[in-house]
Amino acid sequence: xxxxASHGGVSLGEDGATHQMIEDIALMRAMPRMQVVVPADxxxxxxxxxxxxxxxxxxxxxxxxxxxxPIVYDEIPETxxxxxxxxxxxxxxxxxxxxxMVWRGLEAADVLAREDGIEAEVVxxxxxxxxxxxxVLNSLAKTGVAVTAEEHRxxxxxxxxxxxxxxxxxPVPVFALGMGDRFGVSGTAEACMEHFGLTASAIADRAxxxxxxxxxxxxxxxxxxx
Length: 226
Fold this sequence. Notes:
alpha/beta, 4-stranded mixed β-sheet, 34% helix
């Protein structure tokens, strides 16, 4: 079974709040055996569809946005791989993003580097369930603090998936950016995103807040079985 959802998040704007899915990732993560895939752009979405036929046997939920967005991947990837892809290396903070927030995360990293000299690591999490915990831990061990950004409620989505891994294996501050306990609104795509603070500048501001709470010393995660 494959579910391809076309109205993920609030960036479809003009269709109004009744058409905006802002809790779908949480609902699908809770379903047994259901894989949850949130591609970053057209090219990765294409790869996800091919992977759904050639690689994966479990039921799959694929979240597609409706409006056109900037291209993140210059070419169609051969595969989604493990679903966690470091798009920009960094040592100061990890920025975990998915879907339409990926290109905004990259812009936020540019802002942080230019204005603050902060080297942010931008990680695209295309497969939220099952989450590649090892890849998440590798980034957290390197930076010692993280921000997640998603076009979805903070509850039950990417933020909680990353926090679950961090809490069990490598506790560090993980700050979330997403929608709170609110419904969607009508408006243009960008107006809706700005209304809920889902912008590159908001990611950068959240990263600055997170860095204040960064531990002075970051220890590597424990080795399994040790």
